[in-house]
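Is aspartic acid placement plausible here? Inputs below.
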Amino acid sequence: MTEDELINSYPHKHLLGIEGLLPTSINFLLKSSNNYVDYLNNKKNGKLDILKNKICINLFFENSTRTRTSFELAGKKLGADMLNISVGTSSIKKGETLIDTAMTLNAMQPDILVVRHHDAGAVKLLSEKVNCGVINAGDGPHEHPTQALLDALTILKRKKKISGLKIAICGDIMHSRVARSNIHLLNTLGAEVRVIAPATLIPKGIESLGVNIFYDMKSGLKDVDIIIMLRLQLERMSGSFVPSIREYFRFYGLDREKLNFANPDALILHPGPMNRGVEIDSELADDIDRSAIFEQVQMGVAVRMACLKAIIDHKLKAND
Ligand code: ASP
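Reply from A.M.:
I modeled the complex. Tokens:
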């Protein structure tokens, strides 16, 4: 591949994670997403036909509001036919395996499968069994690549750069795919990433991903430009990781007092769903000068448009 092609395309069949992606691929997806932000701002409810006659199936084994809806909206805005498989009413409930479900859907010849699954690695496994492109919409605590891309786009919009920024990811690092994908992406683009959490919520060996660890908000937030708050992922916890919610909020919940430890213009991000009064103070979450939480949702649609388009373009090139 020429350097020009590397800069101007996404050279992979699937989007399974951020780990291992070159900066050129990440930057290409961000640039393309940014173009879609402009398009969405100008055209509001306008529709393109770039993915006309393409079939995209959302296959979600875990609950989702933002991600599933925004993939659906993104595909529709590009003119694709979008199908949603609801696990609750599908044959998966009758005991069909992940692979059998994948093979069944594959036989319908979709162009893209967007998959969320509760097990780390399940989406990659599925991608090896089907002919179409696969996008990981979150696999257990492993990766959530489109979330990291939309977080990066939100940061770029507000701060105009990523390289050199000090970024803190706070909360349940242990069970968070958002933390992992963000660490890979932000490090690849030259940010200084740190994690802040109680020791029980820091996974072993996380420093090998190139982050500094802090166990308290005061020292962890010092000089920080971006604060990414995470939800306690109770659904992935077996046993108790924090003494009580009240105590957790007192020490790790972001409120005005703790925000003052960071830079005066530090921006707050949260992937949602938020648990107000647990990891973030409710009034702070709604402060549009300090929090970009709803902007992230808007960026999410543009990022998913760019990812769907990139996967289809790769497929068209491969068939040339
Ligand atoms: N929505 C994000 C995810 O799917 C974060 C969360 O659920 O807390 O990982």
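Short version: The longest strand covers residues 133-139.
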